Amino acid sequence: MMEDGKILGIISIKGGVGKTTAVSNLGAVLAKRFNKKVLLVDGNITAPNLGLHLGILNSKHTLHDVLYNQVPIWNAIQKSEHGFDVLIGSLVPKKDQKGRVNPYKLHNRLSQIKKDYDLILIDSSPNINDEMLSTMIAADELLVITSPDYPTLSCTMHAVKVAKERKTPIAGLVLNKVRHKKFEISADEIESSTGVPVLSVIGDDVKVLESLSKTTPASICSPNKDFTIEYSLLASKLTGDDYEDPRLLSKIKRVFGK
Q: Is 1 inside any structural domain?
């Protein structure tokens, strides 16, 4: 385990790009393939759905209880069956949980447990509001999820601009739901437009939707699929750990040095 963990904020400012799916799959790969101690946090305060992705519908205590000073953070963390810990939000907040949440509270609470984890992944709100601000304040680095179309690119450019204004370092972009069609925007074009490197290109696959119906990360349901390998490559870039792409084409490229 690293001496002190890293907090990675996963953001986008457009719904439907697969941000929460990316959080759960990256968390599963980090825990299962890289043996990291990982915590997933649902930072989408007003519309939390990370628990729904993982089949965790009820919890005695949630992030809401933590942010409203009703329980210490370690009381609200629970272990998932997938090898990582989870801090979910309340689908229906309690009656005494009203009013604006201080954006600095998430940073304060996570700092109390940061040393206990290699990586803490925050699933941010998809809107530019206090919830996204709280993720940016809490995170050591940001990972921006995007998809290969112009409306999403526009939103991604905006997200990058906001992050740079907040002076939160951006680790890179994840280009998600790629179908490898000519009409899609290429990774090179997206890098040129945003000034941020694309760390991973995740192909669109119906198995990802199938895994959602099973409330299990797709990288666990389909460990040998291309998207799982891409998440593993992404994890290796984020941690600095070695991971060799097992696919035939990658092996051929390594042999010929291309």
A: no
Domain, as residue range, for 194? 6-256
66/173 Cα distance (integer angstroms): 30
User: What one-letter code names the amino acid at 128?
Assistant: I
Kindly report the pTM of this predicted structure.
Answer: 0.93
Q: Residue 152 above 70 pLDDT?
A: yes
For residue 192, which amino acid is it? S
Alpha helices, DSSP H only, in the chain?
19-32, 50-54, 63-67, 104-111, 130-138, 150-166, 187-194, 206-213, 218-221, 226-239, 248-256
> For the residues of 121-157, what is the DSSP string, one character each?
EEE--SSSSHHHHHHHHH-SEEEEEE-SSHHHHHHHH
> Is residue 214 helix, strand or coil?
coil
Give 26-57 pLDDT, tens digit per residue: 999 999 999 999 999 999 998 999 999 999 98
Total domains in the fold of the chain = 1
CB-based contacts of 107: which residues, under 8 Å, 6+ apart?
134, 137, 138
